[in-house]
Structures are given as C-alpha cells and as structure tokens.
Amino acid sequence: INVLQTGASNLTLADTNEEAANSQALATRQSIAVSALALANQSQQSVLQLLR
User: Fold this and answer.
1) Predicted structure pTM score
2) Which of 3, 15, 29, 41 has the fewest CB atoms in 10 Å of its CB?
C-alpha cells in the first residue's frame, strides 16, 4: 500500500508542477499581449499627434 501511495503522490506532484508551469506560461503570454497592445496604442497616439 505504501508503494501505491508514494506512486500516487508522485503523480499528483507531477501534475501540480505541470499545471503551475502552464499557468505561468499563460500569465506570461497575457502579459506580452497587453504590452503589445499598449505599444500599438502608443504608436497610434504618436501618429495622431503628428497629424494635428
């Protein structure tokens, strides 16, 4: 039984680590997307200022 519990614990730990990595990757992608949108907006504002 101890071997089964250890094996189950290892699987649970591996899944938790994988999900934590996936969550961090998603947060990073979202941060990059927000930064890209901010840069695009800033660029548009600069063009509008030049046209005024």
Assistant:
1) 0.62
2) 3
